[in-house]
Amino acid sequence: DLAHGRILYLEEVSVSFDGFRAINKLSLDIAPGELRCIIGPNGAGKTTMMDIITGKTRPDAGQVFFGSTIDLLRHSEAEIAGLGIGRKFQKPTVFEALTVFENLELALKSPRGVASALWHRLSGVQRDRLGEVLTLIQLSDQWQRPAGLLSHGQKQWLEIGMLLMQEPKLLLLDEPVAGMTDQETERTAELFLSLKGKHSLIVVEHDMSFIARISEIVTVLCEGAVLAQGTLAQVQADERVIEVYLGR
Ligand code: ADP
C-alpha cells in the first residue's frame, strides 16, 4: 500500500512528446490537507504534470494514485474531475453575463448532475454551501453583480469558488495570482490558507513573495523531475536551484 496516508501519489512518471521527455521519472507525494507549491523554470514540466494528474495527458510509464486505492490512470479526464480533483487554469473563465451567484449555482450542476438552476430549488445544504463559498471568496456583497463587472482578482476568486462548490478533495491551481494587485494577492493568500486542511492544494506559481506567504513544502521541478524539495528558504539556498534559475 504505497499511497497510504497520501491524497496524491506519483511514482516514476514519464511522458515524451515526439521523443522529447517532458516528464522524466517524476515522483511526488501530497499529504491530505497539504498546500504544496511547485516552482521551476519554463519548460520544467509543471503544466504537463498537472495534465497527467487530471487525465488530460497519459504518461508512458509510472503510476498515479489518488488516495491509497484509486489508480487515476484507469480513469478518464471527466471521471477524475468527478472523483474530486478540481483544476484552475491561469486565465479566469467565468460566465461574464451571469451574476456571481448564478456562476456558483451553475457550478453545482456538473459533474455530479445536481439539476437545479433556481435558488428556491436548491437544498438547504446546497444553499449553505453557496453562502459559505461566497464568504470564503469574499464576494458576499457582490452576489448579484454580473461576473463581467468584477476585477481580475475577483474573477479568479469566483472561479475558485465555482470549483469549491463541487467540494473537491484536491485543487490544482496554475499561477493563481498572476496579474493581481498586491492587495488581491494578499487576499488570495488568506483564501488559500483557509482552504488548507480541508482541501489539498497544488499551486504552481512564480511569485516568490506569494509562495513565501503560503508555503510549507516547495517542490522545484526541472527537466521533468524533482530537482529539490523543502521549505522555500531551503530550496532557495540549494546550489542546483540557483543554477537553473540564474544559469539560463
Ligand atoms: P512548464 O509548464 O513548466 O513551463 P510544460 O509542461 O509546459 O512546462 O512543458 C514541458 C516541456 O514539454 C516543454 O519543453 C514543452 O515544449 C514540452 N511540451 C509540453 N506539451 C507538449 C506537447 N503537447 N507536444 C510537444 N511538446 C510539449
UniProtKB/TrEMBL annotation:
It holds the Pfam family BCA_ABC_TP_C. The keyword NAD does not apply. Keywords: ATP-binding, Cell membrane, Membrane, Nucleotide-binding, Transport. The keyword Cell membrane applies. One of its GO terms (molecular function) is ATP binding. Coiled coil: none annotated. Residues 8-248 form the ABC transporter domain. This is Urea ABC transporter ATP-binding protein UrtD. SMART domains: AAA.
